[in-house]
Structures are given as structure tokens and as C-alpha cells.
Amino acid sequence: MTPVVSISLADLNTAKAGDFVAALSDIYEHSPWVAEAIATRRPFASIAALNDAMIAAVRAAPTEQQMKLIIEHPDLAGKAARAGSMTYSSKSEQSGAGLDQLSDFEFSEFERLNGAYRTKFGIPFIICVRRHTKSSILNQFEKRLRNDRKAEHETALEEIFHIAALRLGQRVEALERLKLDGRLTTHVLDSTSGTPGAGITVELFELSPSGERLVTSVVTNREGRTEAPLIGGRPLPIGHYELRFRVGDYFARRGVPLADPAFLDVVPIRFAVAEPEGHYHVPLVVTPWSYSTYRGS
Amino acid sequence: MTPVVSISLADLNTAKAGDFVAALSDIYEHSPWVAEAIATRRPFASIAALNDAMIAAVRAAPTEQQMKLIIEHPDLAGKAARAGSMTYSSKSEQSGAGLDQLSDFEFSEFERLNGAYRTKFGIPFIICVRRHTKSSILNQFEKRLRNDRKAEHETALEEIFHIAALRLGQRVEALERLKLDGRLTTHVLDSTSGTPGAGITVELFELSPSGERLVTSVVTNREGRTEAPLIGGRPLPIGHYELRFRVGDYFARRGVPLADPAFLDVVPIRFAVAEPEGHYHVPLVVTPWSYSTYRGS
Amino acid sequence: MTPVVSISLADLNTAKAGDFVAALSDIYEHSPWVAEAIATRRPFASIAALNDAMIAAVRAAPTEQQMKLIIEHPDLAGKAARAGSMTYSSKSEQSGAGLDQLSDFEFSEFERLNGAYRTKFGIPFIICVRRHTKSSILNQFEKRLRNDRKAEHETALEEIFHIAALRLGQRVEALERLKLDGRLTTHVLDSTSGTPGAGITVELFELSPSGERLVTSVVTNREGRTEAPLIGGRPLPIGHYELRFRVGDYFARRGVPLADPAFLDVVPIRFAVAEPEGHYHVPLVVTPWSYSTYRGS
Amino acid sequence: MTPVVSISLADLNTAKAGDFVAALSDIYEHSPWVAEAIATRRPFASIAALNDAMIAAVRAAPTEQQMKLIIEHPDLAGKAARAGSMTYSSKSEQSGAGLDQLSDFEFSEFERLNGAYRTKFGIPFIICVRRHTKSSILNQFEKRLRNDRKAEHETALEEIFHIAALRLGQRVEALERLKLDGRLTTHVLDSTSGTPGAGITVELFELSPSGERLVTSVVTNREGRTEAPLIGGRPLPIGHYELRFRVGDYFARRGVPLADPAFLDVVPIRFAVAEPEGHYHVPLVVTPWSYSTYRGS
Question: Are C259 and D238 in contact (CB < 8 Å)?
């Protein structure tokens, strides 16, 4: 299946019913019936209204149909992931969290958990991968394995709604976008001079039990900020991170007297993201001998 | 040679000259002449006065004798370190910085630098190992290789004075001790409740290019402090360190509402020690969403 | 009545019963019966045990006798305070919070509240003045006027126990003192240089609705601390305070580049004391462009 | 003279020379010659270019004409200020710093300094009042009285350029405005919950030796910010300020456990503005037991 190009909300609202359904047939995995159920409810005033209507249609469906929707989803990182039977959307989503780059150990761990999950609940483990890191997916596996069947049916639906909303946001152009993005930003203040900390290299790492992965490396601008969010335009993957600020180089360049070696060189700030749609502002207020940070917004 | 037991300053002051020299013969490596030169200057009012007198005797000696003293010192981590020709004191000192646990790569790096040093200056590389970590010794090698012969002769003497003072402090018992010790301490304040952060696990790591080494792991007491300094009773080895405070567990135990995963779990503070005889107080003032630190005293 | 000199616990333990009672007859206002009740319980292992025994004797007394003890206390700042009928102890205690320096307005306010209190409860308003400031006494008046009779009977006893303990602590010498003192301390850290802020003038003011009163003005020493606690050796009076740190002068003297006028000149920290027996450490971590403070311990 | 309404840069560029001069005749006090000198240099690409051209015309004028321009300015707060001979612009500007509300003492102080200034330099004391508070004007008086004649001639011109630029900015409409405004903003972060401090009353006071003046009182919004800058759309008057944050009420409303009385109730932050065209961001990061602030941007 080839990628579907985007379509405007206005066009969706005026399209023939068949074209409307075709355009949204894979928002819910292999389930054009969701779009069919709401085709007569057009026009939708906003993409949020369209999204809500699709969710309501799934909620209103009989339990067996919901179960069928759930079962249509591929096993996460399982055999399906390597055989080409996923929808195009599923494929590109699952590469996001690094699920296409599993080590042998991780792959067998995923398979083990996936098997245990399927044995206990009889359904595939569904999770909105773009809202997670590899390690938070493993954490979710372990937590959700402790659920009962009913709670897990509900959790699976909620994850499907997250997945569908993200797909919808990419498919449909509208004036007001769905609020699905989070933002991670930073800001360096040099309290020695009361000015922004400009020209400081900041690295963002994703941390996991198996090691760390460089997400991005940027340099602060004249305002002590980064030109773009460290992560933006997408949900913030739930997980553990570390920011590293190269303040030793900065102070040395400015001729600030330093100890040898400097008391502070690379300042690490380790934190976790729990709300993928939140704004995490993690500033650094720093001198050669002190610093503070906090979750701002 | 067997370890020499300690002796009191009072006994040194009243001992026969020969016994005085025997007791202090190896304070300066293979150089009993230093003690001989000051035996008639007794009594010494304090161990500091004794130490100063020995330093003055070395300074007053002819250049050739100073050079002989320098040359008597073993090659750092070189062949001598593995053959048993060092004084007992040298041996136990050099194990301090982990020089007896060099990887093959490090060993060859030390040998290479040692060779380059000896070639350029014609003397062994002398450094007071107890004031350094393995990585700061490598840094010193590289810095000092850029010195000229005269500056390096002087630096070698200064390092010998550090070494001798530490030996003297261990050998001689006196009311007032030589001030050779530094101290690394910490303190956790929980700003959510305005109380000390009690029962928090704090780990101290020494960082080096080749990895990290756990120095100590302690738990804060009811005052939010550790029962003893993290490093104390000795010079603080120059080098890079990281403190890690397990604040996530602490706040969870106290029932403070946290995100899932908690925004802050392990708080790392990375810093360097530049003054082995200094007091480094590195406190943490923390909430589940913010923290600050500074070099206190 | 003349001031009673102090007496040792050892002497109290071995004194004749009559002398024991005489020495402690005014620990509880006009109530030698409290000392009488415990004379046969000697020896007391500590002053804390003696204090506990006196409290237990009051608790064990019939309600009418407790009431009589309560009624023996002078009206706070009322006519008795100006007529000489108080015990010597009461007089010197009430001058502590500035109750002997009431403005006409405050005097009439105290009289009004005292009258309302006596009308509602039929007893004088009893409060341990040394644990309060003038304004917290007024606050207590208003709060306690809302109590019922039973709660207020209990509160009066508790205040009497505070008063008696402080008197006992002054009267009796013992190895281990009663823990009745609080402490207010500070510490200035200069984060520009990573050193203690030495030579900084710090003023402590007590704040009240009618204005502010300078409690003490000190200069930080080489450690950035004050030689003695700002308040110590006594309970900390409950109330509102402001510390003022003259950091502008300090940075100017050190030649740190400053704006004109300096961004920070006098840094005020306004806080309240709620635990008279607590340790309030209120440090300042400061640069010319930033500062932080917290309740430490 | 009546207030002149604004005119667009486009209209100025195409107006007859006489109308151009008439529109800008009082930008420089009683000195239409400045506009005359540049009428043929039109069109001006921006208001900044127009402003620069007027400054260049003054700089290019003979010293006597510059002196005449200086002398045309009214005595600050002197007789002229009460007699109606100032231009309309001068009048409304001088009311800004409270110069129309001088106490008798301040009035005589201003007159004394004004007299001393005129005696020493033979010119009126000129200062761009909108960039100052009453107390910084007094400071400037004292500083500038120590200048020599030449430095003071230059300073008077620079102040005239500030005054003229502000007048020009108000008179002429253009796409890009002159950058004459400063901004004072704040932001409250609640580190107990990691969220913005919403609904907190913040008061801004201007401090002077004679007392304090409430500038504005606002309440933080859901973002912990104020809807508009505390001072904005104008230069920040150089001077001393205090922000007061009512955090005690805020934490009490949120049900956070507090001491009685609360350790922190009103948090004052005292600071000075030195750059009228700067951005002063003065945030508060706060818990019930700690806070920090810094000059941000």
C-alpha cells in the first residue's frame, strides 16, 4: 500500500461518501466501517469534531466489532513487523521508537512479553508508539500484563484512539490542528552577567537500561534559547532523558576565572517525560559554581 | 622493607640523633641526608615546623643533590612499580589512584608518557599520587611535558614536598596535625516540606575517559547529611566526579504526588575537584520538579 | 520580690524538702503546691525528669486547683502589668515581646481583647510571651477567642507548662539543659566565585502591622556566616521577620562589574517563624543578578 | 499650544516642505530649524532613518546653535514648570516621573540642584524624564554636577536626542517603530507541583528614599504570567523597584500543608532598572519553603 497524501477538511466535507470513506479507511487499522459510520454526519466544523465523531463511532460499536478492531492490529515488533502485512501507517510509526533497530536481546524480550500478553488477553499488545520510547514500551508491557481483561480492553481502545488521532492529524489539513504535539525546550541564563547564555552546546540524550542515544545536539542562540524545540511537532515520547550543557567551554571563552579543572564543565540534567502532549521547559540558570533547574512551561 | 610504625613528636625531639634520622630516613625517598641536616635544629615546636625545616634543607641543598633526590624516585607505573625496588611508602601511595589496576591500554599510555618525559627532562615523572586521580595524572603528564627543564625541576621538587608532608603526617604523632586533608560533603534539603532530605541514597562516582568508578554509596541521615564526609581524612584527589541522589524513591516513600515516570528520579551532579586540601560542600536543594546546587563550604 | 539565684540539680536533689519547695515555689505562678507534690519523688535524674514531674503533678491536680493556678496569672499587659503585683519572673518575661512598650493604640487593643477574653472564659489570657512577638500575641488572642471553654482551659495549661519550663531552665543548673531554645542562622554563598560571602552586612528586622523593629545587625565572617546565631539561646519568638543582605556593597568592593544602579543592592528575605524551638537556617546563594534561599536546618 | 495629532511617515515624505517642518517643528524644543535642515533629504526609508537624520543635523550645527537649543529647554521642575511656557510635549513628559507632585522638601531640593547646575554650567539641567524615576533624576543631578562643562554639553545633547526620539515615536506612524521601549515582565513557577503559579497577586512598587509608590497590581494567569508587561510600551524608568508576590494565599488555596504562620507569605524581590530600553524578566520559582529569582530576558 502506498502512502496516502493529505486532504483538506473542506474537501472531506463535500466529497462523495465513498471518497470520504476511502480517504479515511485506514485511520482505524483495516476498519473502513468507522469512517462509514460517520459519513452522513458531515460537515464537521473542525478536525477535532471529526476525530471525536470517529471515537464515538468506535465506542458505539458492539463489543465484538471493537474486539475485531483490536485484533486487526499487528503484533508489536513481532513476526508481522518483519513480513509486510502491516498498513503503511503502522510501519512508519513503529520505526519511530527504534523498534526496527532492536538488539537480539531486546527482540527476544519483546517477543517474550508479546507472547505472554497474547496468552493472557488473547489480543495483540497495542500501544501508540509515537508517544513512547523503547524503554517505556517495555515498562508498559510489564504494567499492563498485571491488568485484568476488561481494563486491558479499555486501554487497547484508548491507545487506538491516540494512534488514530495522530494518523488523522497527518492526513487531514485544517485551519486548527489537533493538539497532539508536545514540546521540549530549554533556555540558559548566565547569572554571572545577568545575560542569556549564548553559544552553549546542548545535547539531548534518550536514556534506557541498555544505554543512551543522542537525540539532538544544538547550540544556544543570542537569547540563550535554541532556534527550534529540542523535540517538537510531535508527541514527546514518554521516557527518560538527559540534557548536557557544555558550560565549561562557555565560561572559558568569556574569560571568566575558573578553577583548573573547572568546577562545572558539562552539566547533566536527567528527567523524565510523562505527558507526551505537554510542554516541558527545562532551563538552566548557571554560574561557574552553581546552577538550578526546574520544570517550567 | 617493612612499614615503620608511628612515633611521637616529643620522642623525636628527645631521641638520639641517629634514631631521629633513622625514623625519618625515608620521608624523602632514599635520602636520609634531609633528616641528618636538621637533627641539630631540634626541638621542633610542631610537626609543621619539622616539615618546614625539611623543605628548607632540600631547598638549601646543592642542585646536584636535589637532582639526585629527584632521580631516586621510581618511574610512575613503570617497570620499577612491578619489580619491588620502591620504598614501602611509594608502593602503597601508588596503589591509591588505581595505578596498580591499569588496563593494558592505560599501562602503555603511562609508559609512553613516562618515556617521553624521561627523554625530554632526563628525570622520572614525579607526582604526589594521593592528590590525583588516574585521569588527572594523565592530564598532568601532558601539561608538564610542555614545560621547560627549569620549571619542571621546580615542579618535581614541589611534588616531592607534597609526598614528604603526607608521609610525615602518617609517621609522626603530634597534637596539631598537618593540614593535608580535604573534605567532600553534601546535604539534601527537601523544599517541598522545608525539612532535611533523610534516607536518600547518594552515590559518588569518579569519572574518567575510560569510565566511572563507584567511590562510595551512603544514605543521608535525619539531618539530610552523611555521617562522614564522602571523602575525608585525606587529600581530595584532583579529578572529575558525579554525585547521584536517588530522590525519586525518597519522594515516592513520602507519598508526594509524582508524575509517572517521575520528572526527577536520579539527580546527577557532575563537578571537578581542583584543590585537594579544600572543603567541597555540594548540597542539593530539591523538589519533585526542581533542584539547585552550588559549591558551598 | 527579688530575683532568685540559680541552684544545681544535685543540690535540689539533696536539699531538705522545705528548701526544695522554696527554691521552686514560683516556677508555677503563686503555686508552691506543685513543688510540694513532687518533693518526695526525688532524686530526679535530669532537669527534664524534674520538669515532667511538675507537669504531671499539675495534670493530676483536681480541676479546681488547675483553675486556681490559671487564675493566679496576671492579665497580660493589663492593670496588673503596671501595678507591681506580678512575680518577678512574670515581669521580666513580659518585657521580652515589647509588651512594656505598647503604643496607646496597642495598649487599648490589648485591653479590649483581654476584656473580651476574660468575659468569655472567666480566666486571664495566658501565653508564654518569650515564644511570641507582639503581633503573634494579638493573632493568638483572636484565634483563641474562637475556642470553647474546654479547649481554652487546655491551651492555658499548655502555655503555663511552656512558661514553667523556661523558668525552670533559668533556675536550675544541670549537665543536660532543657531543649527550649531555637536558633535563627544564615549563611551567604557568592556563586560568582564559589566562595563564602564575607563581610556582608545582614540586618534582621521583626515585622508587625505597626512597623518594623531592628533586632540585630551583623557582618558575615570569612565563612560567610555570623559569629553567633541571629537569635539564639532562647525560644524564637513566633512572628514575621525580614533579613536584609547588603550584597551591592559587597560585590562593588570585590570589583565585580555591576550595572548602575546595581540590579541587586539590598536583598530582603521575608519569612515567618512558627516553631520557637526549631532551627531556622535561612541562607542566601547570590550573584549580582540572581539569588535563592530556602529553609535549611 | 494644542497637542499635535500623529502623521504617517508616508505623508511626511510627500508633504510640502513647509508642512513637513510644521509637523516636526517641536520635536526639538522651539527649534524648527532641525526639521528645516533635513526637508530636502526626503524620502526617509524608516522612522529610524528620519531620527538619525535629525540627530545628524543637530550634530552638524555650529556650537552656538546647539547651545541655543540647549538653552531653549525649560528648567526641570523650576519656575517654568509652573508658568505655562513649556511646549505641550515638555509638560506631559515631566508629569511622568511625578515631577508635578513634588513635596515641598523635594521641590526645594530640585530648585537647589537646578540653581547649582545653572550656576556651574550656565544651562538648564536637561534629562529625558521618561527614562527616569524621581529618585534617579536626583542621582543624576548629583553625578552630573561633578562633570566639567564639555562633558555636560555632550550629556545635554544626548538627553535631547532621547527626548526627541520619544517625541518622534509618538508623532509619526510607521511600519517599524523606533526601539524605545523597555519591558518588565515576571513569571511564577510553583516547584511543588511543577506547574505555573496561577492566580497569584503581584504588586510592583517604585522605591525611593521618601517612600514607595504602587505602580501596578496584577494577578498571574494560567501560564503563571501577567497578561501584559508590568511596565511596557515605554522606556523603563531607571530606578529601584520591589515586586511582591502573595504566595502564602496561593499555597493555602491549593491546600498545600503550611506552617502557621506560613514560612513564606509575601515574597519581596527588590531590584533596580539601569537600562530603560532593556527587557527585565524577573521570575519567581517558589515552594512554601524556598524560592529563587534571577534576571532573565
Answer: no
